[in-house]
Amino acid sequence: MTKHIFWIASYPKSGNTLVRSILCSLFFSDNGIFRFDLLKKIVVFEEFSRLAKCFNTRENNINPKSSKERNYLIFENMKEIQKKIHLGFSEDFAFFKTHFNGNFNGQNFLIDNYIRGIIYVYRDPRDICLSWARHNNMSNNDSLKFMLNESAFIKWIGHKNYKSYDKNIPVYISSWEKHVASWINLKVKCPYLLLSYEDLVYDKINTLDKIIKFFENNYNIKISNKDIKVKNIIKSTSFNVMQEMENKDGFNESVNEQFFAVGKKEQWKTQLEGSQIRLIENKFKNLMQKLNYKVLS
Fold first, then answer.
1. What is the tens place of the pLDDT at every residue in 43-88?
2. pTM to 2 decimals?
3. Domains parsed from the chain with CATH numbers
4. Angle, helices 16-27/226-236, rounded to nearest 10 degrees
5. Is residue 199 helix, strand or coil?
6. Cβ within 8 Å of residue 24, ≥6 positions away
7. Lateral strand order in the sheet of 94-98
């Protein structure tokens, strides 16, 4: 086995795209200037084409009727799915975006011997509630229900040749608390970096320095044109610049509403109802305090 997967993970709408934008500009550009097409260098792991490489793609094989059978099919073959030969790259390792971490019938999603490293990014759940609602064009109450649901899931990304399958292949997210805890309490034998969305947006210089040192110290990676790249990354991955890029050219990860909509912290103070704030804080209080979020209730 080879340690060839570097996971970029988060709960949805927590800053995964911003981390990927920074990494792509750092490692896959000469000058650190971000462009949306660079995100092709860090793709979503949960894409149906990966399953198609490992299974006979007849519907009754890849997409059996029972949800239990579907999950067992995927999880019992997770080692096979994550083999380097099926992931489509020839370099020493590659970055992959994911939201999931867990197991099914004792079969783990993360294969320890395949992991080169992990970056996990978290965000205040009160702001996620608003962002997830906008992203899916749903009410704040429905967004909150999703965040509280320990059985919550999103879908594997379909493929143009396999659209009939994607609706039945779930990527389990669980509740915000279960999700975040599953990643920050990991016991893996690899370098691990924990970042907050708020630091990525409001303290980007120091956070970028932390990211660079993480790779320099753990992987002996030397960043070419580092000073120039840092300067350009700070500017080109600012929220306003990325929002302007989306307004001009569109963004293929947008679902219903604009992807780069607000990007500010503590929106919840004026946009969530008191009862919604109290429910989030009551349910997630211990973990929120562990992550240094102030709880009012």
1. 888 887 777 666 654 444 555 455 566 666 677 778 888 989 888 8
2. 0.88
3. 5-123+150-252 (3.40.50.300)
4. 150
5. helix
6. 34, 38, 39, 41, 42
7. 43-44, 94-98, 5-10, 115-122, 192-196
